[in-house]
Amino acid sequence: MRARAIAALALAMIAAPSTGRAEGWRGGGSLALDLRYSEMTPDAGDPVRAVTAGPRVRAAAGKSALALAAGLDLHMGATGDGDFAYEVLVLPLGFALQIGRSARLGAVTGAGTSGVTGGALPVALALPVEAFAEVSLGDHLRAAAWGRATEVAGADRREDSAENAPFGDEIEIGATLRWDRRREDWRYVAGNGYQIGALYGQVAGAHIVGVVVGYSLDAAGSE
Q1: Contacts of 127 (CB under 8 A, 6+ apart)
Q2: Which of 11, 120, 123 is nearest to 70 (CA)?
Q3: Residue 23's pLDDT band (cuts 50, 70, 90)
């Protein structure tokens, strides 16, 4: 079996416990390997440009359409000035609505940390709440989107810094579109392909715009 199929099946197995352990459970998950280019433009000072890379994972499992959900974000890289930029978010608490075998709508929360060394973005504790959605658009396109509001602690400059945040101190919204290759059998349905997208955020009184490119896959276990 090819590596992509193995990875897709592993996602489905992780998200959906075996029938021997939990009769009637079903679930699914997605893994995106992103390369991000972003530019942070403060109200005063020069723009800060950064390139980061890493995985973004979202998974859901439950005995009905309403399921438990969890996530993980890990992005690391550097700015044009050579400073270290990173974001680590562990999101173990959440719920999702599983629609058929191809769509998930959910919300997750947890904790983490992020920042840019050199003073461009002070390191802070992050307490995010995120809504996310994943859906297939026909046989060859798959879309994903998210919106996140984050409460921060430990960096005064990052507090109350997003004028459009419904709550919290920072926001990020993003969306990707993937050219999809899907396959299905009696045990699982899965897809994979290259994706492109965009993101926008407000952090520390600055506006962030970015481009996302990468590769992603998703899988869902049988009902």
Answers
A1: 109, 110, 111, 150, 151, 152, 153, 168
A2: 11
A3: low
Number of domains the chain is built from? 1
Q: How far is CA 163 from CA 106, 108, 202, in A?
A: 25, 22, 8
Whether the predicted pLDDT of 8 surpasses 70: no
pLDDT digits (tens, 9 = 90+) for 121-175: 999 999 999 999 999 998 899 999 999 999 999 999 899 888 888 899 999 999 9
Domain of residue 197: give its range.
3-221
CB-count exposure of residue 67 (10 Å: 0-12, 13-18, 19+): buried
Q: Give the CATH number of the domain where residue 7 resides.
A: 2.40.128
| Residue tagged 């050199």 (tokens) | 118
- Report whether pLDDT(69) > 50: yes
Contacts of 170 (CB under 8 A, 6+ apart): 126, 149, 150, 152, 158, 161, 162, 201, 202, 203, 204
More confident: 173 or 189: 173
Q: In sequence order, which residues have a C-beta less than 8 Å from that of residue 107 and are 6 or more positions away?
A: 69, 94, 95, 96, 129, 130, 131, 132
What does DSSP say about strands 48-62 and 66-79: parallel, antiparallel, or unpaired?
antiparallel
Residue 19 is given by DSSP the state T
Give the pair of three-digit tokens for residue 162: 């997003």
pTM: 0.86
Residue-level length of the chain? 223
- Two structure tokens written together for 58: 């979202």
Q: Which amino acid is at 98?
A: Q
